[in-house]
Each structure stands twice: as C-alpha cells, then as structure tokens.
Amino acid sequence: MNKVRITFSRIILGCAVTLSASAIAEECDEASMDAFAYEDCVNTKNGAVTNDEDFGDKAPATSAPQVAPEKPKYQPFGKEAYLTSSFGENRGARYHAGLDYSTDMEEGWPIFAPEDGKVKELRTSPFGYGKVMFYQGNSGNTWVFAHQSSFGELDEAVMKQQYATKKNDVTIKPNKAFKKGDTLTFAGSTGIGNPHLHLEVRLDNDRVVNPRMFNTDASDSIAPQVFAAAVWKGNELAITSGEAIDKGCVISPVKNDDNEVRLAIKIADYSRLPKDNPMSVRRITMWRYDDKIFDKRLDTLNFKKMTEIRDQLLWAEEADTAGDWHVINARIAPISTYTLEVEDYAGNVTTKKFTFRNKCNGNKTLPMTKVQTAPVFTFLSRPMLDLTRCESGMKFSVLKGGSVQEENLCSAYKQENKPKLIGNLMERYPGMTGIRYSADNASGSGKGAEGTIAVFSYANTMTSVNWNTSIGEINISQKITGIPAASDPTVRILAVTKTHTDSLDYLEFHPKGMQLKNWNVCVENKSNPAPLYWLGETSRNWFIFSKQSKGKNRCVNVNELRDIASINNQEAPILGFPYWENMIINGSRQVALKIPLMFKYDGVADGNAITVTAKGKWIAAEYDSEPREIVIEGERVPETGETMTVQIVDEAGHKVSYDVMIPEM
Fold first, then answer.
1. Which pLDDT tens digit goes with each residue over 520-569?
2. pLDDT exceeds 60 at position 280
3. Residue 654 has pLDDT above 90, yes or no
4. DSSP states of 11-79 as a string?
5. Distance between CA atoms of 308 and 306, rounded to whole angstroms?
C-alpha cells in the first residue's frame, strides 16, 4: 500500500509560524537525509504537524497490544521445559526441523500424547533421530519424537522384530491408538547428543512446521542477542560489533551516498542461563524509517528445499561460535535510519535502531576464525586471506601462472594488515592464480609454515565450474554444478590449499557454505593414494567417504565443499571394559550391559554393523553413537563369567571380532 502523508499548518494566535532558513539548516541536512525525511523535517520546522502514519505495515510500537488469553499449551513432559535448539537452526547444509527440549541431562522423562491419535511408525538407529516415534494425531498432523530411550509398552514389538530379522536397526508400524495425555514414549540420547527431546510437527512427507504454531509450549526467558553486522559492496567489507550497534551505529565500507550496500546480521538466541546453547530465531524484520523493507518468518520448512539455507545464512569459519549470519535481503541505502526487530520462538523481542557511518565509536574487533591453521579461511561464504599474520612474521606473495606478480603483500597492504577478501586482492592483481605464504620457526608465532593457495575466479552468472589445479605433487580437479546465478555482480572466487594438523596433511577448500547441486572432486596424490576422508567442521573428526573411486584418482560427489585428507587407516575399532548401568526398557529402569567402542577414524555405518552372539544365538544390541557404546539389555546377556562374541564391521571395511567376558553386576 502506498504511504500517505497529511500535513496541517500549526496556528498560534491566528498566525502560521515559519522559521528562517538558517534555523532550518541547523537540524535539516538535505545532504545527509533522504527526500522524505528532509521534507518532513522542513515542514516540522515551519510549524507543520506531520502525520507519518503508514497505512501499510508499521514500525514497532512502544507498548505491546492487548492479547486474548491463550488456551493451555501442550507441554511434552507435562511440565515446563526449556529449549536447547530452535526450529530453523543452522545445521550446516540444512535447517533444524524441530524444537529441542532440555531434560536436564536425564534420560527417561515420560512424554505425553499431544492429541488423540495412533503410533504409525517406530524406527531404531544409532545416528540421526536414534529411536524415533511417528505419531499421527486425529488432526492429520504427524508428531515426531526423536532420540528416545524407550518406546514404553511398544519396546516388546520392536524387540520382536529385531529377533525375527536378526537386525538391530528396524522399522515397525504398530498402528496403536493413544488418547491425549497418555504416556507415549520416554526421552533419551539415542542417535546423537546429550539427553533431550527433539519434537517435530509434519504436515506431510515434505512440509514440517514450527511446533509453536500448534500451541506447543517452549520456555525461553532470554530475548535474542545481536552480536554483529556485516556491510559490503563488491569486495569492500566492514564489520561492526554488537557494542557499536547498541550505540546506534553500523559501519559502511562506502561513503554516505546513494550506493546500494548489502547487509548481514549475526544473531543468536538463548533460552536460559548459563548461555550454553545458542539458537536461531523465528522472525527478523527491518524498517527503513517507518517503511517495512524486510520480513523473514521461519515457521514452515520443506525438506526438499533445505539447501536454501546457504542463501539465507552465510557460512563463516567461526560457524561453531554463537550466532548465525542472517542475510537481510533488501535494498539497503547507507543514508537512512533503520530499525531491526528480532523475535525468538517464545515471543521475546529485541529491537535495534541504527544509522550507517564510516566509523563507529566503541567498535571492537570481531573474531573471524575459531579453529584455523592455514591463512586462508571462509567468512560470509567468501574466501579471505588473513593478513594479520604479517605481524607474526608470515610472508605472502601473489602468483600469476608461473611468475611472481607481487613479491610482498604485507608491504603492499602495510596500512591495513587485516583479513582481506581474496576477491579484493583479485581486483588489485588481475589474473592472479595463487598466493604463496611462508614463515620460519623464528617468526613471532613460533610455528613454521609454507604453502600455496591456488585461486580461481568466475563470473557471478556462471552456474557450473570446471577447475584443474595442483598443490605441490597433488593434482586436484573440481566440477561444480547447480550454482545459482547471484544478484551480487561481484566476481566469485574458489580457493584450495594444503595444510597440516593432527599428524595429517589435508586439502582445505573454500568457500564453505556455497550453494550448489553437486561437487565432484578428484584427487591424484602419488605419495599417498589412500582413501579420502572429510573433516567435520565442528566435531573436528575425520569421516571416510562411503562412496569413492579407487586407483590413480580418488573421486567423490557431495553437495558442498569439504576439507579432504588421504588417510591410510588399518586400525579396526577396539572394545573397552564392559560395565553395568541402568537404562529405560519397557518404560522402566532396568539393568543393561554397556561396552565402550573406541576408534580413531572409522566408526560403524549403522547398528547392523555390530553383531552380538552367545552360544550360537543372536542378541539384540543398541549402538549409542554418543558416547560410543554398545548397549545390551541385561536379561539377554549370558551369566557372569561367561563370554559372548561381538563382531564389528567399520565404515572402511575392517572386520574384527572380540570375546567379551560378562562382569559381575
């Protein structure tokens, strides 16, 4: 709806009040204000009363509107429970599809039915959702309860299927009816993570909805926090800390003119003290003066469109620190005043009002990396070079083909030795194909380093890329398809380097978090033709690619760039000492035997990779991926002093068997 302004003259003693031009100029600056703001300012100074009412969307009011009393909320545990993860939270290549509720690190909390309905399906797995229940309510919605320790009375049906098929991972469809408020299942830690409940509401096989839309309770006593802002135009980037934003200032890398810039805000939400689980937020809204220019509400997700997260949350090397970088996909003009409003899933709201400046008082340096060895890293889904390492003695030179284009980058940028977008370097050194870096042990960091960063530029209109390069004796080919054309006209950059950590040489690929359909990478490593493994960015663990070619070239296909190492691992998993502990079985605490499973690189692909037998009979075993333990119901194991056989096949194909003696209870 178009904005309407209605102006009335202010009459004092029958005369309109008009100020001089000099008085108006004191506060109304035509050069620094947009046309609407300047017009309003002049009218007001001349005695007019300006009605700024926007008959469309309005900026946030100072007082909350009256809200009708809500119906009683569904509490999964029948009592208050705090969130540990939110709907829509960043999980790398996907959004988090539900709400996670804390169980105070305890297993076995009973979970009650949200409505009348039937248990349509139960699944068991050591990964992902672990033990998961799909409950279809009479409303037609499917409620998903993941990471369960027990399915209560339905455990027997699961066990029956396991022994009938001699498989630990099974799926059954009991179709059993329950009433609202009945005990359905029991929270646990199967799959991944500490004890908690993951709750989803699915409309169908593709659409998943924020459970809060169905009157589900979510305790959260802390409003969202704004940690930083990033503003860029092309390859010029400026970062503003939360302290400066609190003072109403955000730094722009361009002058206050009509140049359009782009904006991302780093935001996190916490539910309670201590602040140990940063979450995402439900709504981000921004106004330019009182015009709403951006409104993102995350209440519905599509599993088929999960990769859209890479367009909306920009990836950073410090991605495992608090907060995500949310893109504000709107036209941002530096010469305006903006209001940002952020709402979490419990309805808590944080508001920030700011203007753009060339410099902000109180601005603090923001860490851009957390665990990073090489001087190249990804920030805001763009490769960057850490020129702050010049201060510790590292040297950089620019390569073009086989020759040196710039001998000393540290000298060239001596007035601004800070992280720089590699795209910025490419603008200064057209045709650049690499960056060489080196540091000796006598440098300030005390660490020796030497390597080459290969770089490749391509137009923003290109949707596929073929790039062949070499790092030392390692030949690397990349075929990337399904890259969406960008509205940002900036030339895009790919980078790869070889680095070393944890006694391993590995290849680092940048930028992380780039949206694409497929990444096919082939590595020819003459000195180490071992299988390819990928590095978990937050866990810092190595995982073997389950599907890869063999021979001269090792090739893999995935949907995102990852760090890769060639690892020749011949060590099969080993078992620790078995011990007794209680667990939830059939809805009550019963004794179980737990056996630690230890490995460096290669774990198991699924629960069926573990086989337990005693006296020739198969025994059902559950694999708990965190903390890597094999769990067996106490009633199923042999007597104290007797033995059973545990056979394991890991993801690299190593097969090993152990005889385990049953300890005293």
1. 999 999 989 999 999 988 778 899 998 999 888 999 999 899 999 999 99
2. yes
3. yes
4. EETTEE----HHHHHHH--TTTS-HHHHHHHHHHHTTEEEE---SS--PPPSSPPP-PPPPPPB-TTSS
5. 5
- Going from the C-alpha of 266 to that of each of 44, 295, 341, the distances in angstroms are 37, 16, 13
Residues 6+ apart with CB under 8 A from 500: 373, 506
Burial class (CB in 10 A: 0-12, 13-18, 19+), 402: exposed
Sheet holding 419-421, edge to edge: 376-379, 382-386, 419-421
For every residue of 579-609, DSSP letters joined together read: EEEEEEETTEEEEEEEEEEE-SS---SSGGG
Q: Which residues contact 438 (CB under 8 A, 6 or more apart)?
A: 394, 395, 449, 450, 451
Q: Looking at residue 19, what is its pLDDT?
A: 42
Q: How far is CA 252 from CA 74, 262, 488, in A?
A: 46, 9, 17
Q: Is the pLDDT of residue 176 over 50?
A: yes
pTM value is 0.85
- Assign residue 76 a region (left: φ > 0; alpha: ψ between -120 and 50; beta: otherwise): alpha
**What's the rounded Cα separation, in Å, for the pair 215 and 196?**
20
Note the pLDDT of residue 63. 44
Higher pLDDT, 255 or 605: 605
Q: What DSSP element (H or E) covers 508?
A: strand 504-510
Q: Which residue has the tokens 């502990």?
A: 581
- The span from the first CA to the last CA of the chain, in angstroms, equals 74
